[in-house]
Amino acid sequence: MNPIRITLAALAIICCAAGCVAPQTGSEPASIDAKAAAALSSSFTSASPEWQQRLVQDEVQKQCSAARGKLTGDLASAIVQSQQATLKYPEGGLMGDWKSGEKVAQSGVGLQFSDKPGTVPGGNCYACHQISKAEIAHGTIGPSLLGYGKLRGQSEAMQKYTYGKIYNAQAYMPCSLMPRFGHKGILNEQQMKDLTALLLDPASPVNQ
Ligand code: HEC
């Protein structure tokens, strides 16, 4: 190769390299977290803007994602404290109707971007918990709730814990995988009272 050709080839390589690198100058390559967030938000473009808000992590979710597997005692207590402060209890009793509660527990409907307007979300509890002996299938991400009320009784303190746990699981267990049903507006007050009855009422299938 003559010297001019070599120079041109070298220039071509440099230009190409510069061209390839150019888009990233001045910014760090995207982190895995940023790439994951971008992939997630670009996957639901047909969802309504209100629904898309569900893709944005709140403060506690961010802290839990960042601390996954290495949650310190200080952060754990701070989360429990901040989540305890969100608990709201209804006036006049926490026990509803266990039969309605069972329907809520066994319903996995709701919160999908394709839902028809007015769809009432269920609790999807069976996806993570065993609830009754009659279930054909249930998930095991959470502990079995069979015999929950039989083992613990129906004291006021137990009703308060159970309703509060459903309202915001992280008020008792920081970074719990359980959805915060009341805090996030997934279930309403009556549904949570009915679920409290499902878990505690001696007549419910949970306690047979
Ligand atoms: C995505 C999985 C998931 C879903 C859905 C879920 N839970 Fe849980 N639940 C868990 C996990 C994990 C735990 C254990 C960690 C903790 O205590 O938060 C738990 C714990 C609990 C406890 C505490 C048990 C104890 O021994 O004190 C109760 C009560 C409970 N869940 C009720 C419910 C009810 C009622 C529903 C439906 C409205 C529900 N859960 C839906 C995952 C889930």
CATH class of the domain at 83-207: Mainly Alpha
Global shape: globular
- In round numbers, the mean pLDDT is 88
What Rg is obtained from the alpha carbons, in whole angstroms?
25 Å
Any overview of this molecule?
- The termini are far apart.
- The chain has a domain at 83-207: Orthogonal Bundle (Cytochrome Bc1 Complex, Chain D, domain 2).
- Residues 6-25 have low confidence and may be disordered.
- The protein has helices at residues 3-21, 32-41, 49-52, 59-67, 73-84, 98-105, 148-152, 156-167, 189-200.
- The longest helix has 19 residues, at 3-21.
- 44% of the residues lie in helices and 0% in strands.
- 24% of the residues are buried.
- The chain is mainly α and 208 residues long.
- It has 9 helices and no strands.
- Heme C binds at residues 105, 123-125, 127-129, 141-143, 162, 165-166, 169, 173, 176-179, 181, 195, 199.
